[in-house]
C-alpha cells in the first residue's frame, strides 16, 4: 500500500470489523462502548468489532463508533473515516466542566483550544479548531426538541489525563476562560477539517475537576451514565436523523 486512500480503506475495516459498504453516511463518535450497545439495543442491530480496537453499530444510515480515548485515537478515527467520506461526524464526548457548569449539563462548543499537540501534525498552530456550523445548529435544534438547554463556548483539549492535582494548570484553565476540558474535541475538529469531513461535538459534563470534591470517581461516573447518557445519545441520534432525512449539506467551508 503506497497511498493514504489504500491504507485507510484497509485499516477502517481492520480496526472496526465492519466492511466499508456497511457504514452509514452519518457517524456518531464516542469514547465508551456502552453508547454503542445502547444504540444497538434501540435499533435491534448487531454490535461489530468486539475484540478489535473499535466497536460499531449501524442503523438508518447512522453508524456509531467507539474509538477509544485520547487525541491520538481521535486523529486515527478521523483519518480512517476518510475512507468512506461521511456526510457528517458528530462526537458525543464527556468532559470536565469548568466555570459554572454542573454534572449532567450539555456543552455545544463553538471552538476548541488546541492544547493536545496531536493536531499540530495536521495543521499549523494558527488555524483555529472549529466545528461545522450547520451540524452544530442542527444539534442545537435537537436539544431544544428534547426540552433541554446547553452551554456554549470553548473547550480546552489536552493530552494530559492526570492533572487534577496540579494547581498551576488549574489556574491556567481559569485564565483562558474555557467552558470545559477534554482530550478529543480539538483533534476531531482539526483532523476533520484536514480530511474535508464535516464535524461537530456535543459534550456531556461528567465532573467538575477544578474542585477536589468534583473530581471524577468510579462511583460518580456510574451515576452520570445512569442519569444522563441515554439523553445524550438520543439527542445525537435525532440530530443526525434530521440531517439524513433532510438531505441538507453540512459543509459550510470550502475545503482546499
Fourth-tier CATH superfamily name: Nucleoside phosphorylase domain
Sum up the overall morphology in one term.
globular
> How much strand content do the residues show?
15-25%
Structural class: alpha/beta
Q: Order of strands side by side in the largest beta sheet?
A: 4-7-6-5-8
Low-confidence stretches: none
Share in helix? 25-40%
Query: Quick one: CATH class?
Result: Alpha Beta
The chain-level mean pLDDT equals 94
Q: Can you write the helix and strand succession as a string? A: HEHEEHEEHEHEHEH
Radius of gyration: 17 Å
CATH third-level topology? Rossmann fold
Largest pleated sheet: 5 strands, mixed, barrel
- Count every helix, treating DSSP H or I runs of 4 or more residues as helices: 7
Q: Supply the CATH architecture.
A: 3-Layer(aba) Sandwich
Count of domains: 1
Number of distinct beta strands: 8
InterPro entries: AMN-like (IPR010944), AMN_phosphorylase (IPR047039), Nucleoside_phosphorylase_d (IPR000845), Nucleoside_phosphorylase_sf (IPR035994)
EC number: 3.2.2.4
GO molecular function, one term: AMP nucleosidase activity
GO cellular component, one term: cytosol
Amino acid at each position: 500500500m503506497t497511498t493514504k486512500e489504500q491504507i485507510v480503506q484497509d485499516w477502517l475495516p481492520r480496526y472496526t470489523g465492519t466492511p466499508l459498504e456497511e457504514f452509514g453516511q452519518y457517524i456518531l463518535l464516542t469514547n465508551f462502548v456502552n453508547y454503542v450497545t445502547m444504540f444497538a439495543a434501540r435499533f435491534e442491530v448487531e454490535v461489530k468489532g468486539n475484540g478489535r480496537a473499535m466497536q460499531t453499530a449501524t442503523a438508518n444510515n447512522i453508524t456509531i463508533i467507539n474509538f477509544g480515548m485520547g487525541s491520538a485515537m481521535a486523529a486515527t478515527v478521523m483519518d480512517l473515516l476518510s475512507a468512506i467520506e461521511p456526510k457528517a461526524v458528530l462526537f458525543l464526548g464527556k468532559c470536565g466542566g469548568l466555570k459554572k457548569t454542573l454534572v449532567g449539563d450539555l456543552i455545544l462548543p463553538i471552538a476548541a483550544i488546541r492544547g493536545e499537540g496531536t493536531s499540530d501534525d495536521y495543521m499549523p498552530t494558527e488555524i483555529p479548531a472549529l466545528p461545522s456550523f450547520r451540524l452544530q445548529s442542527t444539534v442545537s435544534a435537537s436539544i431544544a426538541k428534547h426540552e433541554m438547554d446547553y452551554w456554549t463556548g470553548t473547550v480546552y483539549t489536552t493530552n494530559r489525563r492526570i492533572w487534577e492535582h496540579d494547581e498551576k494548570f488549574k489556574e491556567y484553565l481559569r485564565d483562558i476562560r474555557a467552558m470545559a476540558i477534554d482530550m478529543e474535541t480539538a483533534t476531531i475538529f482539526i483532523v476533520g477539517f484536514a480530511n474535508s469531513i464535516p464535524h461537530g461535538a456535543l459534550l456531556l459534563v461528567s465532573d467538575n475537576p477544578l474542585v477536589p470534591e468534583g473530581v471524577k470517581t468510579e462511583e460518580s461516573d456510574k451515576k452520570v451514565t445512569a442519569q444522563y447518557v441515554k439523553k445524550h445519545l438520543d439527542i445525537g441520534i435525532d440530530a443526525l436523523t434530521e440531517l439524513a432525512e433532510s438531505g441538507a449539506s453540512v459543509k459550510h467551508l470550502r475545503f482546499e
